[in-house]
Amino acid sequence: MAFGWIDEQAELRARAGLVRTLRPRPADSPLLDLASNDYLGLARHPEVTEGAARAARDWGGGSTGSRLVTGTTELHTELERELADFCGFEAALVFSSGYAANLAAVTALAPHGSLIVSDAGNHASLIDGCRLARATTQVVAHAEPDAVRKALAGHEGTAITVSDTVFSVDGDAAPLTALAEACREHGAGLVVDDAHGLGVLGDGGRGAPHAAGIAGAGDVVATVTLSKSLGSQGGAVLGPARVVDHLVNAARTFIFDTGLAPAAAGAALSALRLLRREPERAARARAVAGELHERLTAAGLEAVRPDAAVVSVRAPSPEDAVNWAARCRVAGLAVGCFRPPSVPDGISRLRLTARADLTGQQIERAARLIGETRP
Prior knowledge:
Blueprint: H1 5-16, E1 32-34, H2 46-59, H3 74-87, E2 91-95, H4 98-108, E3 115-119, H5 124-132, E4 136-140, H6 145-153, E5 159-164, H7 176-185, E6 189-193, H8 208-212, E7 220-225, E8 235-239, H9 241-250, H10 252-255, H11 262-277, H12 280-298, E9 303-304, E10 310-314, H13 318-330, E11 333-338, E12 349-353, H14 360-372
Parallel strand pairs: 1-11, 3-4, 3-5, 5-6, 6-7
Antiparallel strand pairs: 2-8, 7-8, 9-10, 10-12, 11-12
């Protein structure tokens, strides 16, 4: 029977406690949200939603085609200019998602015969980029510049190193300066995914590459998402102009994908301008993360010290993580739940988002509820 094997896979997932289900949320949820990636609390900000509405009124509900046909509006190019300027890069190219941006950067910058050195803790989009690329991929130990250096030393020819700047599972930061040095020793490029750094790290939220002093370097490319700190949707690749020109001509997820909807571009641009005016939002997100971590560890929970806005709390098992998150929801708190295969080390966790708009009372309540509902 066609697709009969799916039933066997479903049974195996159920036995392992790894069944995933969709949970549609209402427009006005009563839950205290520590599950989303809305780090700066901008997704519902009046300026951001008005930016989306204005763009939809001016440009329509969709971009109408791929970027190279009709899918590039003046709004897209305006967003690209301002993103590049804000983050300290020469040029930017907007995609329909951060996932598509990562696929583009990795596949287009790693031709046949080249080497990709990939951190073991990288996001699935970088991993999939490595799988789709025609290069050879070597996975190295997590956040270990010497492991990168050793991998590059064993290869002659074109090479890139790919890494998250802030890893999405535990929220720890990559040693970007050391990684850049290791790459330069061997003439390799560095491609970093700053999805969880933009809006949180760096001067006024300019991102982890800016904070590390490598933004704008000729051998560094960064990808970002517009769906986290900027409260919208979409992604972008930032880097030297010649790299961006190459992606326009070679990246399949740019050439063949429909352009980002104007409403999303308008929302992201409005959020970016708001962040320029209110740079303190970035510091507030980091402060909230630090307070959450302090309260959770004081309660005896095993929480990883955050380098940005992600706070990870370890659970005994996948089933415990699922049940823990469910008990939090019943108590009025939404938290993320990471289980295999989403976690590279096989350890299940609650994943908490430290939002800049959380009050001290909400932080205290969240930590208390997580402690009270622990397995």
